[in-house]
Amino acid sequence: RNRQKVEQTILPLKENTLYYEQTEVTRPTQVEVSDHQVGLTEERQDLTLFAKETLDQLTKPAKLHFAERKPASYDQLDHPELDLASLDKAYDKLEREESSSFPELEFFGQMHGTYLFAQGRDGLYIIDQHAAQERVKYEEYRESIGNVDQSQQQLLVPYIFEFPADDALRLRERMPLLEEVGVFLAEYGENQFILREHPIWMAEEEIESGIYEMCDMLLLTKEVSIKKYRAELAIMMSCKRSIKANHRIDDHSARQLLYQLSQCDNPYNCPHGRPVLVHFTKSDMEKMFRRIQENHTSLRELGKY
Fold it and tell me: Which residues, in sequence order, are bridge partners of residue 278?
């Protein structure tokens, strides 16, 4: 059988025989955003960030500061004795004192970082700077501690105070007295109390020692009235916050202290009854330097010379 040879037929392509649909490519339109919309977006972002930070803070474990008892350090030169008995004695004296006026003084020097020198119309005044500031602080604390509606300062890290079981039991019974002076302790654990805020009259660096001392005053006293407790607390705090002996102060601070002293009800005695100043009249000075002869028998008349 004869086979026929199959050949591929090539068909020529004519020009313009392929058709492509022409479509117009459109660019996306740019949306204009107003300043108000931008502000709302930023505000939402800020709120979201704030909510996240707040949630993180709430879920973090709480930080606590466990207070430590530290031995009280009082300058023996300023206060040889400072205990409950001396506080009672000072309270009795303060109950009997009366208001006094104060002369206008001109400061001109300090000796040994302890005594201030000033002159007035009627002579020389030497002021014990610790006793002077103690008087000023006492009257300030007397008013602030007695203010029931006093403001509180929130603590970033609360303090935990721990007491022996017997003291903790008695302290729970006397908690209202602490609240009367602006100290709000809450039970936290076994024989423990937590302090989350403190009165503004108490410096934060004094919280540990101050709270323990305030509690000890309550625990050591059998019967105490709120009036007496406030007064004795003001005495204790004024001593702790006052400038000590052998501490130099500049002229401005010295003049400021003398001005504050002049505004006190009793500028002549510290809360413990010690003198704040001594006064030498012009006549006293002249007698010391023998510018004025006193009526006395001379050594020559006594036959000594």
Answer: 126
Residues 138-172 as b/e (b if ≥16 CB within 10 A, e otherwise) read: bbbbbebbbeeeeeeeeeeebbebbbeeeebeebe
- In contact, 171 and 163? CB cutoff 8 Å: yes
**Are residues 98 and 220 located together in one domain of the fold?**
no
Is residue 260 assigned to a domain? yes
Say if 302 falls within a structural domain.
no
Among 40, 16, 84, residue whose Cα is nearest residue 236: 84
Same structural domain, 234 and 247 = no
Helices (H), 174-272: 175-180, 207-220, 226-241, 251-262
Identify whether 11 is part of a domain: no
CA distance 170 to 86: 24
Sign of CA dihedral 149, 153, 157, 162: negative
User: pLDDT digit string (tens) for 42-97?
Assistant: 677 777 777 776 666 555 545 777 777 666 555 554 554 556 666 666 666 666 55
Name residues of the chain where pLDDT drops below 50.
20, 61, 77, 80, 298-299, 304-305
pTM of structure: 0.61
Q: CA 264 to CA 252: how far, in whole Å?
A: 19
CATH code (residue 172): 3.30.1370.100
161 and 234 fall within a common domain: yes
20-33 residue pLDDT tens: 455 555 555 555 65
The crossing angle, in degrees rounded to 10, of helices 207-220 and 84-96 is: 80
